[in-house]
């Protein structure tokens, strides 16, 4: 194995860790701030509130048990939020040391990994990770699924005309390719 490949591989893994951590941190924060709790944790909360059943139940007791389960859930989400913040700091520090890697190519590979693992794009996580990369001086271009070419084609289709020369030149300039005449 040559050294540049190993550096690229390590850089891609760090970027994937950054993306994955932003994804999970977003879910933990949603759970702490609102009632949008991750499904698995909501199921555990329901289980906890129903597993302890007194022999002679009262309304006050069941409310206390439900409150205890909710408290457990909120505490767990706060612990997860702190955990993901620590991982982000470690990952940012690791990315600062990875200067010899082609960050754009590593970013694109990590985004593909993210899409495969988490069933599609999590735009919020991508934006936050992209902002982190920019703060570290490792600016990357985020490619969205709905590019200008599809938007231009949709507009032109509605007008019932297709100006392919204009559409292709816009698409090529967007990704940094010079169109051939």
What topology emerges from the helices and strands here?
Elements: H1 3-33, H2 39-51, H3 59-97, H4 103-117, H5 123-135, H6 148-158, H7 164-175
Helix pairs in contact: 1-3, 1-4, 1-5, 2-3, 6-7
Q: Would you give an account of this structure?
A:
The chain has helices at residues 3-33, 39-51, 59-97, 103-117, 123-135, 148-158, 164-175. The chain folds into two domains: 3-135, no CATH class; 146-181, no CATH class. The longest helix has 39 residues, at 59-97. The protein is built from seven helices and no strands. Mean pLDDT is 79; it is low at 144-154. Helix content is 74%, strand content 0%. The protein is mainly α.
Provide a quick synopsis of the model:
The protein is mostly helical and 181 residues long.
Task: Provide the residue-averaged pLDDT.
Answer: 79
Low-confidence stretches: 144-154
- Count of discrete domains: 2
Describe the main β-sheet briefly: none
Helix fraction? over 70%
Query: In terms of structural class, how would the helical and strand content be classed?
Result: mainly alpha
Give the CA-based shape.
Answer: elongated
Q: What is Rg?
A: 23 Å
């Amino acid at each position: 194995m040559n050294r540049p490949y190993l550096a690229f591989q390590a850089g891609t893994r760090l970027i994937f860790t950054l993306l994955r951590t932003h994804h999970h941190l977003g879910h933990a924060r949603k759970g702490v701030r609102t009632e949008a709790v991750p499904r698995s944790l909501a199921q555990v909360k329901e289980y906890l509130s129903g597993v302890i059943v007194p022999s002679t139940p009262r309304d006050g007791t069941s409310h206390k048990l439900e409150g205890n389960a909710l408290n457990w859930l909120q505490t767990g989400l706060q612990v997860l939020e702190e955990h993901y913040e620590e991982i982000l700091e470690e990952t940012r520090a690791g990315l600062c040391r990875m200067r010899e890697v082609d960050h754009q190519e590593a970013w694109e590979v990590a985004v593909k990994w993210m899409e495969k693992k988490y069933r599609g794009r999590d735009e919020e996580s991508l934006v936050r990770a992209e902002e982190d990369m920019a703060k570290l001086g490792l600016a990357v271009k985020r490619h969205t699924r709905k590019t200008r070419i599809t938007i231009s084609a949709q507009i032109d289709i509605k007008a019932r005309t297709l100006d392919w020369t204009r559409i292709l030149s816009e698409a090529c300039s967007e990704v940094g390719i010079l169109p051939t005449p």
